[in-house]
UniProtKB/TrEMBL annotation:
One Pfam family cited in the UniProt record for this chain: FMO-like
Gene source species: Rhodococcus pyridinivorans
Gene Ontology terms for molecular function: flavin adenine dinucleotide binding; N,N-dimethylaniline monooxygenase activity; NADP binding; trimethylamine monooxygenase activity
InterPro entries registered for this protein in UniProt: FAD/NAD-bd_sf, Flavin_mOase-like, FMO-like
Enzyme superclass (EC): oxidoreductase
Protein name: Trimethylamine monooxygenase
Region (Disordered): 457-485
Bias kind Low complexity: ranges: 466-485
Family: Belongs to the FMO family. Belongs to the FAD-binding monooxygenase family.
EC number: 1.14.13.148
Source taxon at top rank: Bacteria
Phylogenetic lineage: Bacteria, Bacillati, Actinomycetota, Actinomycetes, Mycobacteriales
């Protein structure tokens, strides 16, 4: 009997699962499972879709996306390159290592548009509940079809949770925030750096979202950015407009007080305090409970829910590698659902989880974390027919990226890296990243990146920096329409 599979989410990880089945079909699989992919947004792309909305969407569902205007990749595209679809193939030429968000989304969409997978997706459909029956050995998935305004239910043999874990904010309490006279928001609701032109910002947190939002705001004319860290400062060579202080303790009017006794007068506060693993559509006995770590406790091979392996999670761990890790997981999950892979018994799976967790516990640096996740991906791809993409080489690019950021946090996007698929070294940006105010794909892709007058211009901004936003006229609002070269 043909298995029936539910995929929850049509972002990069859900699309990876659809693409895995399509690859099997192209390789000669005669009988594709009965697949339904539920997506609450009106289009595919998941987190990479930009919306001006915050809070609730047009259907009253919690807004999924955290993307903001003027966002560029904060990691080399060479570490995001699909094994079976290079950036050169998509755009017809090399492009720089750090493209804008809309250009990356165009690349993601280009790959799945080549596959006949959209027919499996039911858009504007939010998952309400997933229930397992010991009697039937099947899941019942109940959804709200917003196009029809009706609840619908169906039975499935397998469920793949591909909803991500960067959409439900972790919001801590700080005394005085309720009386703060300025803007307070979580990074999930940050949409436009120009809102903070001329402002003094406090960013609570010291991870990638704080780093990127802080640099964005200075780029577009913020007066000052203060980072408040819990355990350790980021330690970059920040320009004078930036400072790092210990954790916020309380706010009194516009004065923020910190653990070391220092204070800052601030106009706005952005909580860059992370996200929760939140699966409100799953009962407690099926929901993954974990913090953001490289190897969560309860999923075998980082995929299969230990207490019921017919429930699978994609992309549920902390990530250096993203798209290819999702692919590696999706290919392995596919082979299990097709009966090509047999999972060991509970105790053997538990031992394997313990093995990887013990390795994770010993990690003491980003370099070791990168090598750990590369080894994890290698463990998966060596068991399937996923194309070779030299994950270890991508790991080396990640390590170089870390060094480049440490050397020049404001200019690291001006660097170029080689593709591990084609060997081509990316051309430089047409100008230093801090000078490029228009992030629209139309503006980005009109450049001849191979032109001899184009050169990489690096900066080490140790002194006061006057952002381009204060020296130039405002560009047209960026568009997010799909554009190919």
């Amino acid at each position: 009997m043909t298995p029936k599979i539910a995929i929850l989410g049509a972002g990069p990880s859900g699309l990876a699962q659809l693409r895995a089945f399509e690859a099997a079909r192209k390789a000669g699989l005669e009988q594709i499972p009965d697949i339904v992919c539920y997506e609450k947004q009106p289009d595919w792309g998941g987190m990479w879709n930009y919306t001006w909305r915050t809070g609730l969407d047009e259907h009253g569902e919690p807004v999924h996306g955290s993307m903001y205007r003027y966002l560029w990749s904060n990691g080399p595209k060479e570490c995001l390159e699909f094994a079976d679809y290079s950036f050169e193939e998509h755009f017809g030429r090399p492009i720089p290592s750090y493209p804008p968000r809309a250009v990356l989304l165009d690349y993601i969409m280009g790959r799945v548009e080549k596959s006949d997978v959209r027919k499996y997706i039911r858009f504007n459909t939010a998952v309400r509940w997933v229930e397992w029956s010991d009697e039937t050995q099947k899941f019942t998935v109940t959804v709200m079809n917003h196009d029809r305004g009706a609840l619908e239910s169906d039975e499935f043999d397998h469920v793949v949770v591909a909803t991500g874990h960067f959409s439900t904010p972790q919001v801590p309490h700080f005394d005085g925030l309720d009386r703060f006279p300025g803007r307070v928001l979580h990074a999930h609701d940050f949409r436009d750096a120009r809102e903070f032109t001329g402002k003094r910002l406090l960013l609570v947190g010291s991870s990638y979202s704080a780093e990127d939002i802080g640099t964005q705001c200075i780029k577009y004319g913020a007066e000052q950015v203060t980072f408040s860290y819990r355990s350790a400062p980021m330690g970059h060579h920040w320009p004078e407009q930036f400072s790092e202080v210990p954790l916020l303790t309380h706010v009194d009017g516009k004065v923020a007080h910190f653990r070391d006794g220092s204070t800052r007068v601030v106009d706005a506060i952005v909580l860059c305090t992370g996200y929760k693993h939140h699966y409100p559509f799953l009962p407690d006995e099926l929901a993954l409970r974990t913090d953001n770590r490289l190897y969560p406790r309860d999923i075998y091979k980082g995929i299969f829910f230990q207490r019921n392996p017919k429930l699978m999670y994609l992309g549920a761990q902390d990530q250096y590698f993203t798209f290819n890790m999702f692919d590696a997981q999706a290919w392995y999950a596919r082979d299990f659902m097709l009966g090509r892979v047999d999972l060991p018994d509970f105790d053997t799976r538990e031992q394997d989880i313990d093995h990887w967790r013990a390795r994770e516990e010993k990690l003491s640096s980003p370099v070791e974390e990168i090598d750990f996740q590369a080894a994890y991906i290698r463990d998966l791809v060596d068991r399937t027919d996923y194309p070779e993409f030299h994950v270890e080489r991508q790991g080396e690019v990640f390590k170089q990226w870390k060094q480049d950021k440490k050397r020049d946090i404001m200019g690291y996007r001006n660097n170029s890296y080689p593709s591990t698929l084609t060997g081509t070294v990316a051309p430089p940006l047409p100008a230093p990243w801090m000078e490029i105010l228009d992030d629209s794909p139309e503006s980005f892709l009109r450049h001849d990146f191979t032109a001899p007058e184009v050169s990489t211009v690096g900066r080490t901004l140790d002194r006061q920096y006057t952002p381009a936003a204060r020296r130039s006229t405002r560009p047209a609002a960026p568009r997010t329409a799909s554009v190919k070269a």
